[in-house]
């Protein structure tokens, strides 16, 4: 539990730093002469350069453990943010965002793998995933408004410098506080063997069947929709007052996520049911943004955040069960790859088509397509009616 506490602390600081940039980047890009189409590519290139990092991370994390890659991501991303404070041309911002996307591609798979390895019990793993979601959401509640406040008082350059030094300080703390994977596995094995429900679940065998690629369409469509939202919201107003209001809107989104993350009884339900319910709720919110302008934006964003709080812990637990508890680094790496693709294609699509079609409606359509792609286990007659006579049927 001590390891989980320190890891949650580092994750909080890292997520705070990253989410504080969301209401800032679009107005900053406009201030140095970037067009909306370029901004779409700038937001998307961060996710695109995640791909090679995710591909590398899956193998090296399973081989060498998570610790060194958490430290590498935090320190390098901090240095890049310091350089970002000196940007004067749009192409410079594009290059630094692409580098930042690569180095931070190691952070999420490494942290999720480390958290999942803290216990071999499925219920405890689910609680760790929920804790990860709570920490992520708490940081995202505070950071957008905090980032907007810092910009209003210190300007763009001072904001990027302060955020860069915060990431570097977090990386230095991680050097001394994050344990090696070998010591974590040793302590986890002392907690006891896996519970019988985990072993009896066909999704959690030690040698499970290969995971269907259709499961990875779920993180793709969710990240696609998120990318469109993060692109569209800051374009409502690009002045200082607009930055402040955008930061508050992002915080409302996170408050909604925190609401559902606090409903711990939801962990007793199937992760598949929670993911499906969350994506349906998210799709309804995007339909409301596209077609129902009379509904206050604050209400829609709160419900949209609630759907995120339902989806992400359940999705992480779903992939843990599908993997059978083995090769978690690669599984979370593939999940991050799917999310990177969605985060890249979403803003680029919004930047190209926002003059012809509402990007929110595109997000709604893709979320519904993602639900239709979800594999549904088929029950045989013998499974559904165990006491029946197959010859008669």
Automatic annotation (TrEMBL):
Localization per record: Cell membrane
Source superkingdom: Bacteria
Transmembrane feature ranges: 30-48, 69-87, 99-118, 130-151, 163-185, 213-231, 243-266, 275-292, 298-320, 332-351, 357-376
Record flagged with keyword Transmembrane: yes
PROSITE patterns attached to this UniProt entry: MFS
SUPFAM superfamilies: MFS general substrate transporter (SSF103473)
InterPro entries reported in the protein's UniProt record: MFS, MFS_dom, MFS_trans_sf, MFS_Vesicular_Transporter
Major localisation: membrane
Key words of the record: Membrane, Transmembrane, Transmembrane helix, Transport
Domain Major facilitator superfamily (MFS) profile stretches: 3-381
Membrane topology reported for the UniProt record: Multi-pass membrane protein
Family annotation (PANTHER family): GH10249P
Name of the molecule in the record: Predicted arabinose efflux permease, MFS family
